[in-house]
Amino acid sequence: MRGQTTIDFAIGIAIFLGVVVFAFSFVPGILQPFELSGEENPSLSDRTADALSQELLGSADQPYVLDRYCAVAFFNDSNDAASDCNYDSGSLSSILNLDSTHNINISVRGNVTAGGNAEQLCWTDTSPASAGESGLVERSHAECTSDAVVLARGENVVDEGSGTITARRVVSLHGQSVTLEVVLW
Question: Where are the transmembrane segments (predicted)?
Answer without folding.
Answer: 7-31
